[in-house]
Write a structure and sequence with these properties.
Structural class: mainly alpha
Distance between the termini: 43 Å
Order of helices and strands: HHHHHHHHHH
Number of helices: 10
Strand content: under 5%
Radius of gyration: 19 Å
Largest sheet: none
Helix content: over 70%
Length: 254
């Protein structure tokens, strides 16, 4: 096996671990938390990602209401993951974060046009941004980053991963079918939540179908490449949507 092939396999193996998932999630989490405080400064109504509110309600129900305590819990869980996975001999290379972000950006562009083609909705990436068009660009960017970290944590890790674990324990001989069922339920839930709440989109089957297929694709990315890549892919895709990047690509292609 060539050195290049070994390096490639090492990168793919190590960057899908929970350790790298935690390390790469931290920048997104920090950017979101700092940004959301900044964009909501002086506003009577604080706007946040619905998935974040869901997670925090779980902690609130346990009597944990201080933001610093929540942050400490997240860091403690991350440190525990790093310690637990030491036996995997995970590589820590300075070039990996840049490589992972570039990889995620490529996925974001490819998946956007692939899913648009599947749904025959060439303007779907633009439709997906309509719910936030009345909001300022800084707020849209911050919410895009938050979606990458919190929606992937809720829908990919907790929902799809949790459903898979429960169903697999019940039906251990049907691993592929169990993941398919979990992935479909996760994708439908992921799409449906975007039509709920004050910032939710008006109901449209086309948009619902687009996001459901996108949810399935995210599930595949999560399964193959892990949490870090799918979180950054989601965040970068949303950033590309709100900045009009896909509009420029479509114009250039036209």
């Amino acid at each position: 096996m060539s050195l290049t092939s070994q390096a490639s396999k090492g990168y793919l193996r190590t960057t899908r671990t929970a350790t790298w998932g935690f390390l790469m999630a931290l920048p997104l989490l920090i950017l979101y938390e700092v940004g959301i405080v900044w964009v909501n400064s002086g506003k009577a109504e604080v706007i946040r990602i619905s998935s974040e509110s869901l997670l925090k309600r779980i902690f609130y129900s346990l009597g944990i209401t201080e933001e610093l305590i929540l942050l400490a819990i997240v860091i403690a869980i991350g440190i525990a993951i790093v310690i637990y996975e030491r036996k995997k001999k995970i590589e820590f290379r300075m070039r990996y974060p840049v490589m992972m972000i570039v990889e995620s950006a490529v996925y974001a562009v490819v998946l956007a046009f692939m899913v648009s083609g599947l749904t025959q909705l060439i303007l779907s990436p633009l439709i997906a941004s309509q719910a936030l068009e009345s909001q300022s660009l800084p707020l849209q960017l911050v919410l895009s980053i938050g979606a990458g970290i919190y929606e992937e944590l809720v829908f990919r890790v907790m929902l799809v991963g949790g459903l898979f674990w429960v169903l697999w324990k019940a039906f251990p001989k049907h691993r592929i079918l169990v993941y398919f069922v979990s992935a479909v339920i996760g994708a439908l839930s992921f799409s449906l939540v975007h039509h709920i709440g004050s910032l939710g989109d008006p109901w449209s089957f086309d948009v619902f179908l687009f996001r459901a297929i996108f949810g399935l694709v995210f599930n595949i990315v999560f399964l193959i490449r892990g949490f870090a890549i799918v979180a950054w892919t989601h965040a970068l895709y949303d950033v590309m949507v709100v900045t009009g990047f896909f509009s420029l690509l479509q114009s250039a292609a036209g």
